[in-house]
Specification:
Radius of gyration: 28 Å
Number of strands: 20
Oligomer: single chain
Number of helices: 21
Largest sheet: 16 strands, mixed
Structural class: alpha/beta
């Protein structure tokens, strides 16, 4: 046997936080050394942070990254460590990994396949490195090899696939396998999406099997730069078997996962593979050779860390949603140095969900890092160090405000109060009726006529939502807190929200999730809840209601779905029209198959309504507060779904749809 202990680190980095990023990298190296690991894979662009955006094009960023790498070199004594950083070569910027052995830079591997879809924008900043090409770069007064290279260190061959490299058909690992590479390291910045962990597990396992190698995958962790959530989840596989996996959605700064691998076992596995055809020659120009004395390991550690119970839940999507958004809120809170959150708690599903996510944030964080960890991470908040109870901490961090107008009901008021009490939030009540009346009187005098629901419905609805904004913003300012907007993705798709009203806020945590799922999640939270954290029965007061904005007189019995369409239909139309880019007629035909219980006329009306509302409300989506990315149905125009603010509005296509409906 030829045994080595390898390790993968997940890091909660922040773009351009040079001292903080260095500190967390040092901690990971220290932890890997304590676990007796000889090889440590750090995440992609870990020195700068992955989400630097256009700051990557600053010469100052390049200088600071190289200076940071230089300061970290002495930390690598007796180890091989990979550091991610951008590097300028011949006036082109590349996403690279520096390979450092025992304090010495051996060379830089450059990413070959750039992520340029969805929330990724790498081709804006970086160039893809061409396959099979080796060059050199001069930094810190010396020259080093760079490009599509691998390393033979102390007789062990180490290659790289950098994040997206492993997601494509022409994986660099296939070429590395022909070179007899023993270990493939994958430094990644792979954002969270529902059930994405299963895809990662497959390419790690398949890479280790098909390439007859050991595969080490590292990732970022937490809310790094605002919108993307990184779930961590380091993976180590060897010869097609998963030998170690790290936790996800952790509140720690760094986690190191290690395992012992057998180099001889993977080599002989390759030797037994009849289809293996090695590239044999007089050395490889892509090889970088260095001496290294690997420590002797006497036995393989076969203990496997148990999978957390929540990962095995049949309601994994509900678990992932709660844990992902809660972690993102925690990081957004501390990285923005906010003193807490404020939510306009209406007694409806959306604001209740946002409030419960803050409460879950407190539960998850205190469970994992304890009160010492809370004090360390939130120590800038006055009085935090004296709190040792989850309800007290929730009360310190979350203020909710119920704002009643003349059309508000006792049902929503009581529901809001019950939820606030159940989770331990501060609960305030404002009566905005006089403010609404004042604006109406002022406008009536200005236009010289009374306002009436028959002729001025939309304006009379919107003024109530807008009047709610100044008061809750004032509470937010008094608390030096962050106002959370409560609009969901279904509302964003059709503009069913009042700008400068219920869209007010500095962060919109549920704007990436559809209303239909959100309602299911609240019912799950009422009856089950996250594994180990229980349920919130008070949500029954929310879940028994039909969603309503309560902006018309109660006699109108206003509901969201009467104004729009059933939410499951709306969400299905959105997926077909926006995610899958289908035309109105194609969407209509798909809806007929999915919802046979509705008439042709009704489905045609709803499809037409969606496309019209989608087109005229792009300007609203452009103004939404930043939201978290959760899946491939995101409508955020800044990171995912671009659409013109001014367009033809599908007029021709909708005319064709109307003709189609009439013909049936």
């Amino acid at each position: 046997m030829n045994l080595l202990r390898v390790a993968a680190a997940v890091l909660n980095q922040t773009p351009l936080d040079w001292p903080g990023n260095e500190r967390r990298i040092r901690k990971a190296i220290t932890d890997a050394r304590a676990q007796k690991a000889s090889i440590l894979c750090l995440p992609e662009l870990c020195i700068t942070g992955y989400g630097c955006e256009d700051a990557f094009h600053s010469a100052g960023t390049q200088r600071a990254a190289i200076a940071s790498l230089e300061r970290l070199l002495p930390e690598t004594g007796g180890m091989v460590v990979s550091f991610g950083l951008p590097l300028l070569v011949q006036n082109a910027l590349f996403n690279t990994t520096a390979v450092v052995s025992d304090g010495r830079i051996l060379g830089f591997v450059a990413k070959q396949f750039l992520a340029g879809d969805g929330i990724h924008y790498e081709p804006r900043w970086f160039k893809p490195w061409p396959a099979h090409i080796r060059s050199h770069v001069e930094i810190l007064g010396a020259g080093y090899p760079i490009g599509d290279i691998f390393f033979e260190i102390g007789g062990v061959r180490i290659g790289f696939e950098i994040c997206e490299d492993a997601w494509v058909a022409a994986r660099p690992g296939a070429h590395l396998a022909l070179k007899g590479v023993d270990i493939i390291l994958n430094p990644s910045a792979s954002h969270f999406a529902f059930d994405k962990i299963r895809v990662r597990e497959r390419f790690v396992l398949e890479g280790s099997r098909a390439f007859n190698a050991s595969y080490v995958y590292s990732n970022l962790l937490g809310n790094e730069s605002g919108r993307a959530i990184y779930d961590g989840g380091a993976l180590i596989a060897s010869a097609g078997k998963l030998v170690a996996s790290g936790p996800r959605f952790s509140y720690r700064d760094s986690i190191v996962t290690s395992a012992v691998i057998d180099i001889d076992a993977t080599r002989m596995g390759q030797a037994r593979t009849a289809s293996y055809r090695p590239q044999i020659g007089n050395g490889s120009p892509q090889s970088v050779v260095a001496n290294f004395e690997w420590p002797k390991i006497e036995r393989v550690d076969v203990s496997v860390q148990p999978v957390p119970l929540w990962e095995l839940s049949p309601r994994l999507k509900e678990e992932e949603f709660g844990r992902a958004v809660a972690l993102a809120l925690f990081d957004y809170l501390r990285k923005s140095r906010s003193q807490g959150f404020v939510v306009s708690l209406s007694g409806g599903a959306d604001s209740a969900a946002v409030s419960c996510l803050v409460a879950l944030m407190v539960r998850f964080a205190t469970e994992e890092i304890g009160w010492d960890g809370i004090s360390q991470k939130l120590g800038y908040i006055q009085g935090i160090a004296d709190i040792h109870d989850s309800r007290d901490l929730t009360r310190r961090l979350l203020t909710t405000v119920y704002q009643a107008s003349a059309h508000s009901s006792a049902t929503t008021r009581n529901a809001a109060a019950q939820v606030a009490e159940a989770i331990g939030a501060v609960f305030l009540e404002f009566d905005i009726s006089a403010l609404v009346t004042g604006y109406m009187t002022m406008v009536e005098q200005g236009v010289g006529r009374p306002l009436d629901w028959k002729t001025d419905d939309l304006a009379l609805q919107n003024i109530q939502a807008r009047v709610r904004s100044p008061g809750v913003w004032m509470i937010t300012n008094l608390n030096n807190a962050l106002l959370l907007s409560t609009s969901n993705r279904s509302e964003a798709a059709v503009g069913y929200a009042t700008m400068d009203g219920d869209t007010s806020g500095g962060l919109s945590p549920i704007a990436g999730i559809d209303k239909a799922f959100l309602r299911l999640w609240l019912k799950w939270l009422e009856h089950e809840g996250p594994v180990g954290h229980g349920k919130i029965p008070a949500l029954n007061a929310i879940n028994v209601q039909a969603p309503t904005a309560e902006l018309r007189p109660q006699s109108s019995k206003q509901t969201d779905e009467d104004d729009l369409m059933p939410y499951p239909v709306l969400d299905a139309i959105e997926k077909a029209a926006i995610r899958d880019k289908q035309t109105p007629i194609e969407v209509f035909q798909r809806m007929r198959a999915e919802f046979p219980g509705y008439t042709v006329t009704q489905l045609g009306l709803w499809v037409e309504r969606f496309f019209k509302l989608w087109s005229r409300n792009q300007w609203k989506r452009e103004r939404y507060a930043p939201s978290f990315h959760l899946d491939d149905e995101n409508l955020d125009p800044k990171t995912w779904c671009r659409f013109p603010i001014l367009s033809g509005g599908f007029e021709q296509e909708l005319a064709e749809l109307r003709q189609k409906v009439l013909s049936l």
